[in-house]
Structures are given as C-alpha cells and as structure tokens.
C-alpha cells in the first residue's frame, strides 16, 4: 500500500466550475493577500495542476478577500534578504511564475475586487484578460517606487506594451493608485462590473460571487473564442503606437522622463532611474535582456539605504495608524471647533465627511463665511475630480453647523480650539467652553507650541485636556501630533487618537513640553537657517541647499509658508524655554521682517515676493535690506555647501534625539514618522533616527564637535547621541 | 334605503370576526364568491370614513412616437377625464376637486390637471392641481383625494395621471439660457451684440431630460440590472416573466377584460381603442437581444423592461355616503395605504418589498388574505427581485428591521391581466390603472382583498389595500 503525503495548501485552492478552474487566493494569516513565498509556491503548484488537467479549458484567478485582490509583494520577504543576489532571485522567481501564466495554453482571467497593487498588478497583467469591480476599494497601481523599489516581476516589461510608454512611466514613476474606470480607459482592464447592493446576501459577499460568475462566463467565452482578448484601440492610441514606432521618439521620451526625474528627486532616489533603465532595455533590446536588467536592478535597489528608509517609513506609518490606548468609553458624535481659520476649517473638512456632527464656531461672520467656504471648496474639488457626487457633498455638508455662539455645545463630545496662539486667549476660551459643555467633553488644543499643561492650568477638568496638533493644510498633511500631559486620562488620549484615525491621520502621541516634538525639532533648524541668512546665504541658495538634500520645500520658502510671524513667535517662545541651545539666528531679524509687514506668503511678501504669477520666485528686496543690517561673517571652515547642509540636519537630528532621551517621544518610529510626515524631513533618510543609524552616530558626532568649536552649544550633542556614538551596536531601528 | 343596507352589511362583517360565516346569511353573497368557505372581515375602521372607487378609465396605452405623437399631454388627460364623465355620467359640477399625477412636465401646461379639466367639459369652478412622485404619481393623486375626503373637505374627487413621452422638454444648455436671459436685460445694442458674440458652438448643444436618477446619476435600467444580479435573478427568469406578462395581457385584451380602456378619436387619425405594446414573443427571440444597460454581461434587455409609453388614466373617488346618495354602485373600497422610501442607489426599485408588509400590518392582514395582487412591473428583473426579497427572512431582518419575511405573492394571483411590461407604462398614469384593475379583477375573480404595490424613482414605493364592494 502507499501513502500520499500532500502538504495541505492554505493560501491557494481551486474549484472546477464546468470546464473553468476558479483559482482562489486567500492568506489566512492576514487581512490582505501578499505575494509571500508561501503564496507564490502555492500559486505555482495550483496552476500546474490546472494546466495538467485536460478537462480544464480556462481559468479564473480571484481573491476571496472582499477588499483585496493582492496588495503587493511581501515586504518582509525582501527585508529579510542579506544580499542583492538574494533579492534578484526573488525577482526571477516571480518573473518565471508570471511568464508561465502569460504563456498559458488556456486563457486565464484575473477577477479583481479591491486593491491590486505591485506584485498583484503584475500577476493580473500576466493573465490574458482582466476584469474588475468598480468599487471604491478597487485600485490598481505599481507603488514599488514609493518603497524605493521597482516592479520586479515583469512589470517593467509588460506595462509599456499594455498601456504605452508614457502611461507606463507615469504609473511606475509616481506609484499612484488608479481607479477601475480609469484603468479601463487606459487599457489596463478589459471589463468593469458595478458593485451590487443588498440582495439575499451582504453586498460585499454577493458582489464577489457576481464578479466570479461574470469572470467564469468570460473565461468560457474566451475558451470558445466568442470573445477575444484584444482591446479595440482608439484613434489616439493607434497614432501613439505609430509615433512610438520611431526610435528617436522613444529616445526623446527616455531623455525627457530622466530629466524630469532628476529635477524632482535631485538624484536622491535611485529607483526611478532604474525603472527607466529596465523599460528602455526591454523595449530596445528585447524582453530577455529586459527581464535580466529588471531582476538585477531589483536586487540592487533592495539593498539601498533609500529603499530601507522608505520601507521603514511605510511600516512606521502602518504602526501609527493604530490606537494603542484602547477603545474610547464614548463614541464621538459631536465635535465643536473654535476658530474657522485655515486650521479650524481644515479640521472641520476632514471631520464632516466621516459622519461626525461638526460645529464650527468663529467670532465674526466674515471669518465664519471664509471657513465654511473652505470646507465647501474642499469637498467640491472632490466632486470636480469625480471622487464623490454632488449629493454626497451636500449630505456631508449637512453635518456642518457654522455659528458665532456656544449654542449646541451642551451636546459636544469634544472641542478642538484653533484660536490665536496666545495663552490668555486660550485660557479664556477654555473657561467659556467648560461652562457650556458636558462633563465628559474633551478639550483639545491645536496649538503648535504652547505647552498643554499651561493651557490646562485653568481647567476644571485637566484630565480632559489634550493637545491635537494638526499640520497645514489639514486635508493634505497626513500627520497629527497628539500631546498628553501627566494629567491627561488614558480615555481622553484614546478618544483623541480615535478621532484622528477617523480623520485618516497618521498619529504620533508625544509628551508635553514647549514645542512638543515637531515644533521643537524645527525651531533649532530654523534658527540655523536664520543664521545662514545672516551669514550671507541668500534665500534662494538656502532653498536650493535644503531641497537638494531631500527636503520637499526649501527652508526659506517653508518659513514664508508657515508665516514669518509664526516663526518669530515660536523662535522667541522656545528660545526662552530652552535657552542658548536654540540660539544661532537672531530673532530680531524675524521680528523686523514682521514689523515691515513681511509675514510670508499670506501677506504677499516674506523672504520672497508673492502675487506675481511668474514661475521664477523673486527674492524680496526689502528682506534683503534687513538681512544686510543683521549681517554676520561666516566662518569659512564650516560654511561650504555640504557643511551648511549638515549644520541644518545636525541641529534637527540632535533635538529629535534629545526628545527621545527626555521621554517626549515614546519611540524612534514615531520620531521618524513625525519628522517626515509633519516637517518634510528628507524621506530618503527615513527620518532623523534612521539617519543616525545609517549615517553613523560617531560620524555625526565628529561633525557636530567641529561645528561646536565655532558656534558653541548649539551643536553640543545630547547624551543619547553620544551613547550611540560610543557603542556602534546601539541602533534606533533593529 | 341603500344607506341603511350598507350599514347593516357592515355590522354583519364585524360579526364575522367571531367566526360566523356571513356568506350564508344572504344568497347574493353566495353567488358572488366562488369560495364561500372564506371567512373574511371588512376592513372598515371606526372613526374612519369609508371611501370608494366609483369607477376608473384610461386611454389606450400606446408606445411613444406612435398614434399620439402629435398631441400634448393635456390632450390625453382630457380624453381620460371625458371618458370618466361618459362612463359614470356624473354631473359636471358634482366633482369637488381634480388631481393629476405626471412625471415629465410639459412646461406650457405644468398644472396639467387644470388644463385638461378646462377642456374636458367639467365646470370651470372646480379647482385642480398636479402632483409628481415619479412612477407613483397617480397613486399620490388618488391618496391625496382620499385624504381630502377623509378630512371632510371634499366628497367627490377625480384623480388621474398622464404621461406623454412622444414629446419631452429639451432645453438649451445652461450657458445658452444664461446668455438669453441676460439678453432680455441688455439695454443697448452694443451690450446685446456683445452677448450674442459670447455664444460659442458648445452653447448650442441641447440638454435632454435626464433618464438618470439625479442623486446617483445612474439610469434606472442600470440599477435594475444590478438589482437583478444582487438577487441572483437570471436572464432566463426575466425573459420568462416578461413573456408571461405579454401573454397574460394578450389574453386579457382578447377576452375583453381590459374594460377600463376608453376609445380615443385622435384628431386627424383613426380611433384608437387598444393598447399597442402587447407583443408576446418567444424565448428564442428574446434570448437574441443584447443587454440594454450593463454591457456586455448584463441581463436587463429591451424585451424584459417596460417601454416608453403615452397614456392617461382617471378615477372617480367618493365618500361612500356621497356615492350612494348619487345612486352609484361603487366598485371598491380604498383602504389603508403607505409610502416608503429607501436608498436610491442600491435599493431604488425595492419599494414594493418595503411597502407590502407595512400596509398589510396596518390592515391587520396576512399576505395569504390577499386575493388579487397588482404590482407595477418596471422591469421583469425588478419584479422578480422584489418577490425574492419578500421571500427572504435575511432581507427582512437585515434591511427592513422586521422579525420575519412577509412572503412572496403567489403568481396565480399576481398581475393576471398583464402589467406595465406588456400594457405599457406611462409613468404618471400607471397607478390608477393598477387600482382600477384590482377592482375589476376582484369582481371578476370573486376576491375580497386586493393589493397594489409599486416602486418609483428616488427609491420610493407605495402600497394600497383595496377591498371589494359588496354586491
């Protein structure tokens, strides 16, 4: 007798529906499907069985998870690799598997509902036919570039053939998500189906069944040659194909795309250039070369510091989208916001569309009208981009109440104040609010620098007081910094985090103190920037030096955006709180600019002139005059371009590490996330803590010591940094 | 004398609650009811007026663009009103009020009730207004009439509905309209010329009345296809149902059962006396059609959907006392009714499923008590989806907050004389057809209770319980 030992399959199975093999993907250990080793092995196994079965005339690949087809490759699988060769071999395995599917003797239909990203999309485009649900959850894309990688399982080779060179570059270089209807227009999908509503089963369940039914029908028709996989090409598409037939046109495209990438990345990110190289090799030298270049480049990228940094940020971001403080005792139903300025209205905008009744209170009709218009515009822009319907906009707006008084505050579960940054005013509104709100109501301050304990000093319910520091513009900036005092209750924190998560924010929870974490790190760097301006580095040069190390916005422009008055305010307050360490630049310089009305973009003048529509930003001559009066001599030994850049970075990083040392920051992950998503710290470094790990604490220490000689204690490394420098085994990230 | 008689009957009905077989009291009753073993009470309620349907008529329902093509909506409505006058012989000033339902309004006759009444020979002293509620517009006209009578403000009301799809208001684009309106205000020649000069070719593109749901931008056919898919209704089931509708309508027409139809001498054309959209086909023929809305995998086709129709209907509604005082023998009591509404995206056409259990509950009836069902057939897929929804405990619990399903109406009592799929569906006029048909079928089939249910755009629905008038 014989014993069959069949390893039980857990991720992939298949079932015959007449002569169609329905291959179902489901990773039982996760909410999403990823192309893990296990998943890949089982797909290969199952497909081999399907191909070996003479009864089977066609196949359908589908996921059993309603919101996810395949969300991408398993990142940890790549992270675990020790060498480029290892990463390359991962790529090659994927390439082989998908090539077999592409060359399948029977038609294979990919039936997509939910995210179809990265490796998931590569699987789908290896199939002969693709159909997807038009659900909001269905998105297609190649986000590898955002992790410093490239589509390494044939994506760089198949996409250009499928959607044309320009679109393929756009997809792979931006990594953006594409909705199903758009994907159909682009030629990425053959067919889309509308999601179903209630029936005899839940809409999600029945929609999945329906997708499968339609896919099985298509598979049968494909096998019977009743339909073909060829998509009808429009005139534009045909023209484009003809034009792309000319080698010199393609060359022009490669050049243009490369230039654009260099301009945007400053050469700090290797992945986009490698993607261009892969596509070019495949198109110009044939697919075998293309596949080889793709897997080799994938291997190289997998080992780069940039990729590790971006993957770290991605995983940190996932970690910062969880509530570690438990479920709030009460569900937040009504939120009141004080102040309908940019911040207040921005907070309202990201709240109303989550179905939370939102009161927006201001003190003047003009201010209120401006704020309500901002919320309307934010939603209406989504209507214009077809993200929501005008009815959804109107229904959303019905959750917003604009008013000048405190009526209805007796129903408020939380109040967020976004009034002027002045402790006396904050005290006044806190008292007014506590007089009209119920005992359970939380009072959150959207201050960017005032210590929460100072604000809470006049509160009757200090356990209900918390800081919620949003970043401007609220609807675009993902970060929310939550600040707790030693009196803030756990439930208050849990509620604030819960609201932030509903608003779609990435959240860091930090301890109280002047400037908390983000503003506190920014202040010394800003001081250094002012110092540099005084030393004769012009605003334009300062911008260029900072953007060229990866800051998305130049330091001078950033000051204008934040507001010179705000910067002056913060510099002065934090200067007082932290003393000389925050010195360097002269606060009077900023104050003088404010006196002259140079408050930044909002006043039309700051470091630069605004208003004129010319692309080239003009330096404000008035500001230059002021700079001259504050002029200092630059010490030549530490004023080269590179030194200037390191001086800025050092001051930021040292303060960040000090925040960790002092317990303001609970961990380096939140420190990195806060710095990158709130302040634009170069993503290629992965945040200040990963920067220390990668750059080396000892090297950083040496640089700081050198600057210290010239500038004194602005550059004195904190204890924790010294500890890390002394012991190389100490790292912030494992 | 008649008065007293009725009240006596009512008393007998009430006694039946204690189990007395009232049918045995009178040989007349026995005659009327083919199954005399039924024990049924009247639905009369103390403190609520008995309101009756005296009679109902309609013009033939024609596919739009055919014989009625050159008319206007009020012409059709007027014809229905004249038909009602002729059929009932009611004195022209005995009516207190006239209400019409319509969906796509002709802008020149936006109060089509008044325009139709003025030419129909009614006294010009009778006020008239027009209501709109998509496909249940004439239901709304009838229940408005019921409300006025119940409130004691009227005794006799004419309710009706009209729809004319052969001509619909096609407008200039918004930009063009804006320019034209500004032109009215421009004072100088220069200003006028400047405005005229601002007109661009794109401004000339006309704006058609939307066939899509305004809130969701989805056409009803598309929603019906998704609904059918959600309930797992197959193409074959839909085609079979549509074929049934056409076959039953054909038989009813041939047997002369559609007695609510009044002939119409169309100016310059022949007399129209029959609905012209009834076309029983074969399953093979129907299977050849391609899906009309969801392509290529949809199941709703031209053959299993209702089609664009011109037509009008009218009914005469009175308090029972008034009807008897005028010497009428009413056809039916109009009893409880409900309106419901739900999600216009995914449950657009499920009105009947929501309305049916609600109205039955209100009347204290079970589905099994109903002898005659008349449901509006927007799409075969919509009807079959509703039948499945009503037969699902899960749906009743999950979406309707009910403890159990109401049950699916048995098809041998359901739309036996055809339905909107076959007879046609002039949006505003269908409701009166349904009610009149229930009254006629109750009489013909010897039933006591009838149920009308319909879905409507906007995710709304309606149901009404109708009770046969004792003969």
UniProtKB/TrEMBL annotation, chain A:
Residues 515-608, 647-725 form the 3-hydroxyacyl-CoA dehydrogenase C-terminal domain. It comes from Electrophorus electricus. Heterotetramer of 2 alpha/HADHA and 2 beta/HADHB subunits; forms the mitochondrial trifunctional enzyme. Also purified as higher order heterooligomers including a 4 alpha/HADHA and 4 beta/HADHB heterooligomer which physiological significance remains unclear. The mitochondrial trifunctional enzyme interacts with MTLN. This is Trifunctional enzyme subunit alpha, mitochondrial. The record marks 122, 144 as: Important for long-chain enoyl-CoA hydratase activity. The record marks 469 as: Important for hydroxyacyl-coenzyme A dehydrogenase activity. Signal peptide: none annotated. SUPFAM superfamilies: 6-phosphogluconate dehydrogenase C-terminal domain-like, ClpP/crotonase, NAD(P)-binding Rossmann-fold domains. It holds the Pfam family 3HCDH_N. One of its GO terms (cellular component) is mitochondrial inner membrane. It is found in: Mitochondrion inner membrane. Residues 335-512 form the 3-hydroxyacyl-CoA dehydrogenase NAD binding domain. GO terms for molecular function: enoyl-CoA hydratase activity; long-chain (3S)-3-hydroxyacyl-CoA dehydrogenase (NAD+) activity; NAD+ binding; transferase activity. Its EC number is 1.1.1.211, 4.2.1.17. The active site is at 481 (for hydroxyacyl-coenzyme a dehydrogenase activity). InterPro entries: 3-OHacyl-CoA_DH_CS, 3-OHacyl-CoA_DH_NAD-bd, 3HC_DH_C, 6-PGluconate_DH-like_C_sf, ClpP/crotonase-like_dom_sf, Enoyl-CoA_hyd/isom_CS, Enoyl-CoA_hydra/iso, Fa_ox_alpha_mit. The lineage of its organism: Eukaryota, Metazoa, Chordata, Craniata, Vertebrata. GO terms for biological process: fatty acid beta-oxidation. It catalyses: (3S)-hydroxyhexadecanoyl-CoA = (2E)-hexadecenoyl-CoA + H2O; a 4-saturated-(3S)-3-hydroxyacyl-CoA = a (3E)-enoyl-CoA + H2O; (3S)-hydroxyhexadecanoyl-CoA + NAD(+) = 3-oxohexadecanoyl-CoA + NADH + H(+); (3S)-hydroxyoctanoyl-CoA = (2E)-octenoyl-CoA + H2O. In the N-terminal section; belongs to the enoyl-CoA hydratase/isomerase family. Belongs to the enoyl-CoA hydratase/isomerase family. Pathway: Lipid metabolism; fatty acid beta-oxidation. Keywords: Acetylation, Fatty acid metabolism, Lipid metabolism, Lyase, Membrane, Methylation, Mitochondrion, Mitochondrion inner membrane, Multifunctional enzyme, NAD, Oxidoreductase, Phosphoprotein, Transferase, Transit peptide.
TrEMBL record, chain B:
One of its GO terms (biological process) is fatty acid beta-oxidation. Residues 51-321 form the Thiolase N-terminal domain. Its main location: endoplasmic reticulum. It catalyses: octanoyl-CoA + acetyl-CoA = 3-oxodecanoyl-CoA + CoA; butanoyl-CoA + acetyl-CoA = 3-oxohexanoyl-CoA + CoA; decanoyl-CoA + acetyl-CoA = 3-oxododecanoyl-CoA + CoA; dodecanoyl-CoA + acetyl-CoA = 3-oxotetradecanoyl-CoA + CoA. Keywords: Acetylation, Acyltransferase, Endoplasmic reticulum, Fatty acid metabolism, Lipid metabolism, Membrane, Mitochondrion, Mitochondrion inner membrane, Mitochondrion outer membrane, Transferase, Transit peptide. It is found in: Endoplasmic reticulum; Mitochondrion inner membrane; Mitochondrion outer membrane. The keyword Metal-binding does not apply. Pfam families: Thiolase_C, Thiolase_N. Pathway: Lipid metabolism; fatty acid beta-oxidation. One of its GO terms (cellular component) is mitochondrial outer membrane. Its EC number is 2.3.1.155, 2.3.1.16. Residues 328-467 form the Thiolase C-terminal domain. GO terms for molecular function: acetyl-CoA C-acyltransferase activity; acetyl-CoA C-myristoyltransferase activity. It comes from the Eukaryota. The keyword Cell cycle does not apply. InterPro entries: Thiolase, Thiolase-like, Thiolase_acyl_enz_int_AS, Thiolase_AS, Thiolase_C, Thiolase_CS, Thiolase_N. Belongs to the thiolase-like superfamily. Thiolase family. Mitochondrial trifunctional enzyme catalyzes the last three of the four reactions of the mitochondrial beta-oxidation pathway. The mitochondrial beta-oxidation pathway is the major energy-producing process in tissues and is performed through four consecutive reactions breaking down fatty acids into acetyl-CoA. Among the enzymes involved in this pathway, the trifunctional enzyme exhibits specificity for long-chain fatty acids. Heterotetramer of 2 alpha/HADHA and 2 beta/HADHB subunits; forms the mitochondrial trifunctional enzyme. Also purified as higher order heterooligomers including a 4 alpha/HADHA and 4 beta/HADHB heterooligomer which physiological significance remains unclear. The mitochondrial trifunctional enzyme interacts with MTLN. Interacts with RSAD2/viperin. This is Trifunctional enzyme subunit beta, mitochondrial. It comes from Electrophorus electricus (Electric eel). The gene is HADHB.
């Amino acid at each position: 007798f014989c014993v069959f030992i069949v390893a039980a399959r857990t991720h992939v199975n298949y079932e015959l529906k007449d002569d169609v093999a329905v291959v179902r993907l489901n990773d039982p250990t996760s909410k999403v499907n990823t192309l893990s080793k296990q998943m890949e092995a089982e797909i290969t196994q199952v497909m081999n069985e399907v191909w070996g079965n003479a009864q089977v005339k066609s196949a359908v690949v589908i996921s059993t998870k309603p919101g996810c087809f395949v969300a991408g490759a398993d990142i940890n699988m790549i992270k675990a690799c020790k060498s480029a060769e290892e990463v390359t071999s991962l790529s090659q395995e994927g390439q082989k598997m998908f090539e077999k599917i592409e060359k399948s003797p029977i038609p294979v239909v990919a039936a997509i509902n939910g995210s179809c990203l990265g490796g998931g999309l590569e699987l789908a485009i290896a199939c002969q036919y693709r159909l997807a649900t038009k659900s909001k959850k269905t998105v297609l894309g190649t986000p590898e570039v955002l992790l410093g990688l490239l589509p390494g399982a044939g994506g760089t080779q198949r996409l250009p053939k499928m959607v044309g060179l320009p679109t393929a570059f756009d997809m792979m270089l931006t990594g953006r998500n594409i909705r199903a209807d758009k994907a159909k227009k682009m030629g990425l999908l053959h067919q889309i189906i509308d999601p179903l509503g209630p029936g005899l089963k839940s809409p999600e369940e029945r929609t999945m069944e329906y997708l499968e039914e339609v896919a099985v029908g298509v598979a049968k028709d494909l096998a019977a040659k009743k339909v073909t996989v060829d998509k009808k090409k429009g005139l534009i598409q045909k023209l484009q194909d003809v034009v792309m037939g000319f080698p010199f046109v393609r060359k022009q495209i490669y050049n243009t795309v490369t230039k654009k990438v260099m301009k945007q990345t400053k050469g700090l990110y290797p992945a986009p250039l490698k993607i261009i190289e892969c596509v070019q090799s495949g198109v110009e030298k044939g697919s075998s070369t293309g596949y080889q270049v793709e897997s080799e480049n994938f291997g190289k990228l997998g080992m780069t510091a940039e990729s590790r940094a971006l993957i770290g940020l991605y995983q940190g971001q996932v970690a910062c989208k969880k509530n570690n403080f438990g479920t709030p005792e009460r569900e937040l139903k009504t939120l009141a916001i004080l102040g309908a300025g940019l911040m207040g209205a921005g907070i309202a905008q990201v709240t109303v569309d989550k179905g939370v009744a939102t009161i927006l209170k201001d003190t003047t009709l003009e201010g209120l009208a401006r704020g309500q218009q901002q919320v309307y515009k934010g939603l209406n822009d989504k209507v214009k981009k077809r993200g929501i319907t005008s009815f959804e906009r109107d229904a959303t707006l019905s959750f917003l109440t604009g008013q000048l008084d405190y009526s209805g505050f007796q129903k408020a579960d939380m109040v967020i104040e976004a009034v002027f940054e002045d402790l006396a005013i904050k005290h006044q509104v806190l008292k007014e609010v506590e007089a009209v709100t119920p005992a359970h109501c939380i009072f959150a301050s959207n201050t960017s620098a005032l210590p929460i304990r100072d604000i809470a000093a006049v509160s009757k319910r200090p356990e209900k007081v918390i800081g919620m520091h949003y970043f401007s513009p609220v609807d675009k900036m993902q970060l929310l910094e939550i600040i707790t005092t030693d009196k803030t209750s756990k439930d208050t924190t849990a509620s604030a985090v819960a609201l932030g998560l509903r608003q779609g924010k990435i959240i860091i929870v930090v301890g109280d103190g002047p400037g908390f974490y983000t503003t506190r790190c920014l202040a010394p760097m800003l001081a250094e920037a002012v110092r540099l301006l005084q030393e004769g580095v012009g605003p334009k040069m300062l911008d260029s030096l900072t953007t060229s190390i990866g800051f998305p916005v130049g330091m001078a422009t950033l000051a204008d955006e934040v507001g010179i008055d705000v910067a002056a305010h913060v510099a002065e307050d934090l200067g007082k709180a932290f003393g000389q360490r925050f010195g360097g630049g002269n606060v009077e310089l900023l104050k003088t600019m404010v006196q002259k009305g140079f408050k930044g973009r909002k006043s039309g003048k700051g470091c630069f002139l605004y208003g004129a529509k010319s692309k080239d930003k003009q330096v404000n001559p008035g500001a230059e005059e002021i700079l001259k009066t504050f002029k200092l001599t630059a010490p030549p030994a530490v004023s080269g371009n590179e030194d200037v850049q390191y001086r800025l970075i050092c001051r930021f990083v040292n303060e960040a590490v000090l925040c960790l040392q002092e317990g303001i920051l609970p961990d380096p992950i939140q420190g990195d996330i806060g710095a990158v998503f709130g302040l634009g710290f170069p993503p290629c470094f992965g945040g200040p803590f990963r920067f220390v790990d990668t750059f080396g604490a000892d090297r950083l220490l040496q640089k700081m010591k050198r600057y210290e000689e010239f500038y004194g204690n602005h550059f004195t490394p904190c204890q924790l940094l010294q500890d890390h420098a002394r012991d190389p085994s100490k790292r912030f990230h494992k | 004398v008649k008065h007293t008689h009725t009240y006596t009957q009512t008393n007998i009905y009430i006694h039946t609650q204690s189990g007395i077989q009232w049918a045995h009291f009178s040989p007349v009753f026995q005659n009327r009811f083919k199954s005399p073993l039924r024990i049924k009470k009247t639905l009369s309620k103390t403190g609520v007026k008995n309101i009756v349907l005296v009679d109902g008529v309609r013009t033939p329902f024609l596919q739009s663009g055919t014989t009625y093509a050159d008319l206007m909506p009020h012409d059709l409505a007027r014809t229905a009103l004249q038909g009602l006058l002729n059929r009932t012989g009611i004195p022209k000033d005995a009516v207190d009020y006239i209400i019409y339902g319509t969906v796509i309004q002709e802008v020149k006759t936006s109060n089509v009730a008044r325009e139709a009444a003025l030419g129909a020979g009614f006294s010009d002293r009778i006020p008239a207004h027009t209501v709109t509620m998509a496909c249940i517009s004439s239901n709304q006209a009838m229940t408005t009439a019921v409300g006025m009578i119940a409130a004691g403000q009227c005794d006799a009301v004419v309710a009706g509905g009209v729809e004319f799809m052969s001509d619909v208001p096609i407008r200039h684009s918004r930009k063009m309209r804006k320019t034209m309106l500004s032109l009215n205000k421009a004072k100088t020649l220069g200003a006028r010329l400047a405005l005229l000069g601002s007109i661009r070719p794109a401004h000339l593109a006309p704006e058609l009345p939307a066939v899509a749901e305004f809130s969701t931008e989805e056409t009803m056919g598309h929603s019906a296809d998704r609904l059918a898919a959600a309930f797992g209704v197959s193409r074959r089931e839909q085609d079979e149902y549509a074929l049934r509708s056409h076959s039953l309508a054909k038989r009813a027409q041939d047997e002369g059962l559609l007695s609510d139809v009044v002939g119409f001498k169309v100016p310059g054309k022949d007399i129209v006396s029959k609905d012209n959209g009834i076309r029983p086909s074969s399953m093979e023929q129907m299977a050849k059609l391609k899906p009309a809305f969801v392509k290529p995998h949809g199941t709703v086709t031209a053959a299993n959907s209702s089609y664009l129709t011109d037509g009008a209907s009218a009914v005469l509604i009175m308090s029972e006392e008034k009807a008897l005082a005028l010497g009428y023998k009413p056809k039916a009591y109009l009893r409880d009714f409900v309106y419901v509404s739900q999600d216009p995206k995914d449950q657009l056409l499920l009105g009947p499923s929501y309305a049916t259990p609600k109205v039955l509950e209100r009347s204290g009836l079970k589905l099994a008590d109903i002898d005659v069902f008349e449901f509006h057939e927007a799409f075969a897929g919509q009807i079959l989806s509703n039948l499945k929804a009503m037969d699902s405990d899960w749906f009743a619990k999950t979406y309707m907050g009910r403890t159990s399903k109401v049950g699916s109406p048995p098809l041998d009592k359901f739309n036996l004389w055809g339905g909107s799929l076959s007879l046609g569906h002039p949006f505003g006029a269908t409701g009166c057809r349904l009610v009149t048909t229930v009254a006629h079928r109750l009489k013909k089939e010897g039933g006591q209770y009838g149920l009308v249910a319909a879905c409507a755009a906007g995710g709304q629905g309606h149901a009404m319980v109708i009770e046969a008038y004792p003969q």
